[in-house]
């Protein structure tokens, strides 16, 4: 089972918490009761699928629950030993995947989701001009809100009054039964009917299956809209076509800069009013048919011509750097003095292993590989040259790294040697003293230069190194996700 699906949106952080709605008495329960409850829940989750067949439930449910238990580990619940502070997010209920719990939640959800579908259906009726007076009233309210945005604070209050309070009052005070259309409604007198109550639908009723049908269709709608949005938005923005995505990037950048400067000049109230009216009018059946016929007759034949103009502008004004990025990598060939006249090839290391390096100071061995052929390019890069090249400018890389206590060969094989200062007691030509004796203490003080050119005085230390370089280029990543089926 894969750890995650590449390039997909999913909540890989903490699970979505469950809202806790409880009374004050339930918040004051003791720690022992909560601990035992957690322990029982843990034992129940761990024993899923291990019950005997005669304990109830179908064999399919037990097998599926056992499979889920093997795939998804049960989270640890041994955190109830300390007093519980329900204000802390640590004790928010975040149950794992459970087939019985998922089934129960789906049944409860489906029995209560009807109000969402009722609202969705009424919104569709409103925007499709089923009752023109309702749509015109909505446009009037929308216009007032756009002209005076402070009216947004009135909308939830007015909606509560008109769609909650007034219908509830009419239920408690229904109109008197009469056959005369001229009789007016009277709210006088005590309530004659019980109050209304929102209840979940019964699981064996037709409304339950209607909710299930609408939920099924809503999931299909979301999937289709998601796929369509990805199909339309992804190609211009994911740089699959770099020239086109670069043009989109430049257009968005220029628009953002322009809006940053001139957004306060635009008449936003008029823009929102006109946009709302246009979009709502497009939902009218007559205007829809006229718009579709106009699109087929006039716009679609010119779409290819407009795309040709856009492509020509992109190819003429946008130039991309098609050459891959190139860099130079280095490796240091380290050799160790064997005590005689020979040097022993030791290792190829990414660091020069100089006398004051962290590895030398801490007494650790140099990191690397024994053979030149085992040196690999950095991750995400590949070799652009077939062979390594010896760096002849050994003095420059020593100075760049500010390496001290070394002797540099400026000719020949360009080795950089450690300097053995213990063997350097005095300059034979009467020059500067490299080692000054400290009288009466038996110790020596060394004046070390940053680096020295090779003098042939036999002061070479235990290690020597030289630098090899080679060019690499960025590796092109091939997308193989389309071939996985």
Question: How is this structure best described in words?
Answer:
- With 485 residues, the chain is an alpha+beta fold.
- The protein contains 13 helices and ten strands.
- It has helices spanning 24-27, 31-46, 59-71, 99-112, 114-127, 132-147, 154-172, 206-237, 242-262, 268-281, 285-317, 358-362, 394-400; strands spanning 326-337, 343-349, 381-383, 389-390, 406-408, 416-419, 435-438, 443-446, 451-453, 460-474.
- Strands 1, 2, 3, 4, 5, 6, 9 and 10 form an eight-stranded mixed β-sheet that branches.
- The protein is elongated.
- The two termini are 16 Å apart.
List the helices and strands and how they pair.
Elements lengths: L23 H4 L3 H16 L12 H13 L27 H14 L1 H14 L4 H16 L6 H19 L33 H32 L4 H21 L5 H14 L3 H33 L8 E12 L5 E7 L8 H5 L18 E3 L5 E2 L3 H7 L5 E3 L7 E4 L15 E4 L4 E4 L4 E3 L6 E15 L11
Parallel strand pairs: 5-9
Antiparallel strand pairs: 1-2, 1-10, 3-10, 4-10, 5-6, 6-10, 7-8
Residues in helix, %: 40-55%
Shape: elongated
Number of strands: 10
Number of helices: 13
In angstroms, what separates the terminal alpha carbons? 16 Å
What fraction of residues sit in β-strands? 5-15%
Outline the low-pLDDT stretches. 4-12, 24-32, 48-56, 75-80, 425-448
Overall radius of gyration: 40 Å
Estimate the mean pLDDT confidence. Answer: 77
**How would you spell out the order of helices and strands?**
HHHHHHHHHHHEEHEEHEEEEEE
Main pleated sheet: 8 strands, mixed
Coarse structural class:
alpha+beta
